[in-house]
């Protein structure tokens, strides 16, 4: 027998099993066409059509009986068997596929027993595995989420384990960490976690549930593993990665966005609980569009209202960040100095306040560091109305917040940036782009002013209006942050979603 014939007789049933599984999950035309290609010349069109109709009928029946325990077996077992039976028209191949499918099902079920704990009773403490690329000591907005999630969960009596490749100690806030293989990212201390056997070492923690933080490569790949092992998990989305990819050199944006959309759509459909810090993501993020609405939930951002407080105000800090003019309003930018944060717009805005009689309207302080640092500094060299502080620790940052008057934010690639909440906790008014969740958090004319995204002329208007009504706009910000964004409230909401995910039926 030729090599091609041997391949067709021996390996094609395995290919069929894989294809049938894909069809069972997504019921897509490409998988059907792939089947037709593999068996071209041996499978008639009526057979393939009958197989597709049978699979779709199984899906419809499963959806109609979604509350029945039989629904999962209808999707996972009956549909692929029917597909194999009708399309193969061959007893030996059909039996081979049945054996492989059953082996996969029972093998994975047995394997999953070693990697997950039995479902907890209502009210029992949870065992949670947190997974992602943004953990302390690396600093960014998502790291603030992971840090406070770990600390609040342990404070509430839950057990937590961390899996990441970010370099650090074996324990993080008294929580054990498993570190896998990683690849250096664009920022100091950042690491992209890669698939490795270390993931299964982390799963020996036997979690009730896994929390994937953001749309990072390891979260995309791990979601498929968790789905196969039937381990419940939730996926929180913090940034618009498709926007970030646009800042890569060509052809990165074209290839990256296409891959993200395809990969993200495939993986996100497997998850029953998506938590979005920006409610607009459910309508705008490309790979979440095909996810059922009842799987998407808004997860409110939080901030440390005990660290960021008006009481941190310091006369010496005010003197420093105002460039010796503490009598003038101070407008602060706080964040990573990166182009995806739209930092390139800041010099244009600051220059508008150095002309037309606006020189003494306010002073600017830029807090943070990153790849765009030298570029921004060079553009503003010689301007007396701006001060650069570089990267600050949390205590110094709290002093800068409290010693400023207004926070300016140009970013449109994130959801609701944590700096908006930290600034409100410190008693600042906020000037930010007019985006859905930001509009809710800031309240145009209530706790700050909004402007048209990326439009620095409109941003100038918003800053001037904010200065004119500064005391009125600052007055309600602290109380609003305490009532809405304290971390204990935010993580309590997360635990409610964890418990909901534990009782949600597995998708597909």
From TrEMBL:
<dbReference type="Pfam" id="PF13439">
    <property type="entry name" value="Glyco_transf_4"/>
</dbReference>
<dbReference type="InterPro" id="IPR028098">
    <property type="entry name" value="Glyco_trans_4-like_N"/>
</dbReference>
<dbReference type="GO" id="GO:0016757">
    <property type="term" value="F:glycosyltransferase activity"/>
</dbReference>
<feature type="domain" description="Glycosyltransferase subfamily 4-like N-terminal">
    <location>
        <begin position="140"/>
        <end position="285"/>
    </location>
</feature>
<dbReference type="InterPro" id="IPR050194">
    <property type="entry name" value="Glycosyltransferase_grp1"/>
</dbReference>
<feature type="transmembrane region" description="Helical">
    <location>
        <begin position="47"/>
        <end position="66"/>
    </location>
</feature>
<keyword id="KW-0472">Membrane</keyword>
<feature type="transmembrane region" description="Helical">
    <location>
        <begin position="15"/>
        <end position="40"/>
    </location>
</feature>
<feature type="transmembrane region" description="Helical">
    <location>
        <begin position="78"/>
        <end position="102"/>
    </location>
</feature>
<keyword id="KW-0812">Transmembrane</keyword>
<feature type="transmembrane region" description="Helical">
    <location>
        <begin position="209"/>
        <end position="235"/>
    </location>
</feature>
<dbReference type="Pfam" id="PF13692">
    <property type="entry name" value="Glyco_trans_1_4"/>
</dbReference>
<protein>
    <submittedName>
        <fullName>SQD2 protein</fullName>
    </submittedName>
</protein>
<keyword id="KW-1133">Transmembrane helix</keyword>
<feature type="transmembrane region" description="Helical">
    <location>
        <begin position="255"/>
        <end position="277"/>
    </location>
</feature>
